[in-house]
């Protein structure tokens, strides 16, 4: 059977279906932002954007753009009924203070100890893009990562230890890739789901860390 | 009578000294006091430290200030490699202090609130903590952060009255309220001017006590 | 559908455990969630730590809770000698931690904001600093303070919707918003119930994400 | 000539006339609260109350009391046009953060080094009343004290060093008593004004600290 890796929307949808109603969720830049498109509006999930928006809604119709309303990716959004605004310090109080039920971020690498690297490709890279990722990663009740399973060159991004500079230690709880869903358990990565046609052997071949199938050993 | 309105850009920008630290509101293209930034360029102060969420894209309001060589240092949460700030940094022509965005906002709030230092887990396990003071609190490694005060803050508001009370529109609030409280001299531009008492007391976001000058810049 | 309204006091008070730390909003007679305090008395939790601005006058809402012997410790900014709290304290029947009022508010904000410690000049040169960690910052002696989280917060609001978004009336705001963000379980009573969307987004003071249960207690 | 000590209102009025228009001022409990009554409404001074009121106005008419609006002394007040509300943490950010042009407090004792004692009469007093005085004392741009020049028993309250537990060190800039106005200068108390009939000798007799008449020596 042929393997069907997911595209960006497929990964976002895979993540979206696991978000229970009522959660407060922050979505990072990139694929994570797409997750909101796959949560049906009647399923009340409250999306938080670091720039002080609580209750981010879908993109506006092209003729109904509010120039004063953007999300953390600086794209125009709407506000859901019941939404509100706060300033940047209060907004990050939400992130740092443990009020987010979930944060979904992109990453370069995730390690089996829950470490995440998503802000710099090397320690001596001159231009660094921290943004709000470090505040979100340490503060959310749970951090999920959505990313391609390997680099374009086929190198593993699911690793025993991260090789890039860390964003935070021991915080990732789950990873959605174009091939699988992995939970981070005390003993390492546990395969929770795989795309159609994928085998554990084939997945392991694309993964540097050891993959487990049991949630405890 | 208290009247914080100034009636021309020159009065708004008066006495901003060379070497000042300028807190610049806004996030993306929203809530940036672009007219005041243009006024600052006109006014001529140089050797500035600018505190702003990001180094800006090419074509952004801050690019011109950078291109004129008026900025000595940028304190921000990220710099795009493909931007003037990124190129200046890589050439060694610009000092950049990268601060996690939440820590940046909190350091300004601390400056405004008289908090002389605080501990946060943000960044404590990262390169940003190298050579800096950390402490384990409640089982978490935490980084000691200090206040980030400004000599000047440039603020964009939606409505203002003569006491300098401000409201903001939608997500244009962002950094503006914390910057207003963190600077010695807070200068706001407002899209709308309202009589004193028209802003509902419960809905004023930045009370005028944090604002020194207000310039009306209609939308 | 998110609906934080509970429809009876028993549901509002469910699962408050013995030994809980309870943050109690209000200042003077304003903004005190008196009905919830009565509900807590009815509910029966004991061995409580109560965080409240003051020990209360005789006849105040908190006096009854104290008189029933349900409070192990009071964390507050002052206790009147001529009050039940003052008399219990002098008899050694009540543990009291006196905290400067601004530090108390800031410690709760820190708890809600994930700030694991902060330095303040408040009280650093006083008896309250004895035996505690201080540090000189910028020429000022400062005291290290830690967050003050609650297991439960009892909040009085003016208006609320089903998401738990809250507004407050006049000076009844006081400690309520910081307590709402500092507790694991925030329980609000509201004088008015409004449909979702009726509160203007810019004017919501406590977003519902900080609120777990709302009980309608008409004025 | 006979000495005319001021009553509480007289002391408050003496202080009030020195407050310039436009200042943000916090008034402590007791005599300081009376100061507001002697600032004419057309002279725009903004009064801050710790419980989150900016722009405290005069007492309401008895039939127009707003039960939701009190000052830090928990008495009913009005809100001035232009006033606003904030929560307690933000309100004390104003105090601690140096935004008050002036704070006026009562005290038990003030010392020539600017120390103030106003919260406890001895270190082992079991019941202590801190309130917000410590936050206000360290944070305001200038701290003025309004108090009786001596205790009821005639003991000096204007001292070389405070004998009661301190509220804050080196913060008092001026003292208004029922007999005189004293500035706290680097070399000690300087007499700025005295009530009618008072002489420097008679004032010194009621004062433990040395009184100066020159602002520098």
SSE map:
The complex is a heterotetramer, with two copies of chain A (217 residues) and two copies of chain B (219 residues).
Chain A: H1 8-16, E1 24-27, H2 31-34, E2 46-49, E3 53-57, E4 78-85, H3 88-96, E5 102-105, E6 109-111, E7 116-117, H4 133-139, E8 143-146, E9 158-159, E10 172-176, E11 180-185, E12 188-194, H5 200-205, E13 211-212
Chain B: E1 5-6, H1 9-13, E2 21-24, H2 34-43, E3 48-51, H3 61-67, E4 71-76, H4 84-91, E5 95-98, H5 101-113, E6 117-120, E7 134-137, E8 140-145, E9 150-160, E10 166-167, H6 176-182, E11 183-193, E12 213-216
Parallel strand pairs in B: 1-12, 2-3, 2-9, 3-4, 4-5, 9-11, 11-12
Antiparallel strand pairs in B: 6-8, 7-8, 9-10
How would you describe this structure to a colleague?
The complex is a heterotetramer, with two copies of chain A (217 residues) and two copies of chain B (219 residues). Chain A is of the alpha/beta class and 217 residues long. In chain A, 16% of the residues lie in helices and 26% in strands. Chain A has helices at residues 8-16, 31-34, 88-96, 133-139, 200-205, and strands at 24-27, 46-49, 53-57, 78-85, 102-105, 109-111, 116-117, 143-146, 158-159, 172-176, 180-185, 188-194, 211-212. In chain A, β6 and β7 form a beta hairpin. In chain A, α3 (88-96) crosses α4 (133-139). The longest helix of chain A has 9 residues, at 8-16. Chain B is α/β, with parallel strands linked by helices. Chain B has helices spanning 9-13, 34-43, 61-67, 84-91, 101-113, 176-182; strands at residues 5-6, 21-24, 48-51, 71-76, 95-98, 117-120, 134-137, 140-145, 150-160, 166-167, 183-193, 213-216. In chain B, strands 1, 2, 3, 4, 5, 9, 10, 11 and 12 form a nine-stranded mixed sheet that branches. Chain B has a three-stranded antiparallel sheet with strand order 6-8-7. In chain B, β7 (134-137) and β8 form a beta hairpin. In chain B, α2 (34-43) runs parallel beside α3 (61-67) and α5 packs across α6. Chain B is globular and about 50 Å long. Chains in contact: A-B, A-C, B-C, B-D, C-D. At the A-B interface, α3 and α4 of A face α4, α5 and α6 of B. β6 (117-120) of chain B pairs antiparallel with β6 of chain C, so a sheet runs across the interface.
